[in-house]
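lol ok so funny story. i was supposed to be doing the assay writeup but got distracted and ended up predicting the structure for this chain instead. priorities right. anyway since i did it might as well share w the group, maybe its usefull for someone
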Amino acid sequence: MARIDKTARRAYVLDTNVLIHDPACFFKFEEHSVIIPMTVLEELDHLKRGTTDTSRSARQATRNLGMLLDQADPDQVRDGVPVALHPEGGGAAGRLFFLLPESGEAPPGLDTASADNRIIAEVQYLRAQRSDETVVLVSKDVNLRVKCAALGIPVEDYRNDRVIDDIEAMSSGVLVAGHAFWEELGEEIESWKQGGRDWYRIRSDRIGDWTPGLLVCENEQGGFEAIVRENDGRCVLLEVCRDFRTDRHAVWGVSAHNIRQNFAFNLLLDPEIDLVTLAGPAGTGKTYMALAAGLHQIYEERRYERIIVTRETIAMGEEIGFLPGTEEEKMAPWMGGIQDNLEALLRTDDGWAAAATKDMLSGRMLFRSPGFMRGRTFNDTFMIIDECQNLSPKQVKSLVTRAGRNTKIVCLGNVNQIDSPYLTATTCGLTYLVQRFRRWPHAGHITLEDVERSRLALEAESML
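and the output, tada:
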C-alpha cells in the first residue's frame, strides 16, 4: 500500500459508500480538500429513490451538498466550495471540489463499466493534476481498497465514525477493585441504609474513572458488589447490588449464575436505568434475562404495558425471498431466538395453562421491524433491540429516540457476530451506544462472558 505523508496537504476523494455511511462526512476533513467524483454523484442520484435507509442517506447527502452550493458563488464551484468544520457553521476549514468527467483511462485490465474502476481512473487523473498534494481515496469497500493498494494508490478506510480505535478498549461495565481497595481508598468513607439498601459515599483521588452504571466488585467470584450512582471526580456514590442468584429472588423463575448476570438483572430491573446494553458471546443469557425481566415488570410489578422486540433483518446466509402476511408475521422468521427463549420461560406441562399463557401474552408481546419505527413514540414500553451490532449508529439513534414516557430500552448484541458488510466492531451501533452513554447516570452496560446455554455451546465458543 502506498505510504501517506501525514505532514503534506491532502486531498481526499470520497467513495459513494462513505457518503451513504455518513451523509455529513465532507465536513470532517479539517483543512484538507475534499473531492467528489462525478461517478459518485451519479450513484447518489440512482440510490436516492426509495424508502430504504440507503436511499434516505443518499437524499441527506444530496441535501447537504445542496446546502453548501446554495451558500457558494457560482465561480466557487470550480475553484472549491468553502466547507465549515460543522454543517451549522463555525469557520471554513477546507474546500469541496467536484471532479469533472475529464479524467484519464482506467489501468489496463480494469473494465470502466464498473463504477469502482471509473473512480480509480479519476483518482489517478487527480494524482497527476495535484502533484503538490497527497491524493487519498477514502472508501469503506474492502475490495476497492485492495485494488488501490495493488495499484499503489493511497487509500484509507473512513475512520471518523470509529467510536474507539480498539474494541478491547470498550468498557466491560465491570471494575474489579480487589480485596484491598477499601484500605487503598482511604478513610473518607460513609455508609448508611436507605430504602432497605446499603449505600456508600467515598472521597478519593482514585475514583476518577468510575463511571455511573459501573459494577464495582472485590472479585468476580463474590463478595462486595455495588453500582456507581454518581461521580463528580472526587466523590462517588455506591449502591450495593441486589442478589438474584437464589431461587427466592428469581426473576420470572430465572436466577443469575454469576456476578455479571446478577449485575445484568440489577440493571434490567432498576427503574432509574432507562438504557441497558448487554454484550457478550452467544449463550451468555442476554435474551433470556432481558425477556424474563420484561415479563416480570409487566405482570408482577405492573411497571410497563408491553414488550416490543425488534432487530435488523440481515440474513446469515441466502435470502429466503419476500414473506407474506402482516408485519408481525413477516418478522416471525427473524424472531426465532426470541420465541425459543419465550417457550423456555413459559414452559409448562399443563395444556390449559399453556393456552392461557399464550392468551395472556397476546397484545403484550409485539414484534416490530426497525424499518417501520420512524416517527413513532412508545410509552410504558419495555423495548428490546436484538442483534444491535448489525445496526449503524444512525439506525440506533433512530430507534433509541423512539422512547417515550416510562420506557426502558435494552440493546443486546455480540460485536464478534457482525453480518453487515460496512460495519465493524469499532463502528457498529452497539459499541456506539456503550461508549456514548458510559457517563450518563441513567444508562448501564455489562459484557457477559460465561456461556450458560450448554457444555457443547461453551466448548464451541472457545474451540471454534
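The chain has two domains: 10-156, 167-463. The chain has 15 helices and 18 strands.
back to the writeup now i swear
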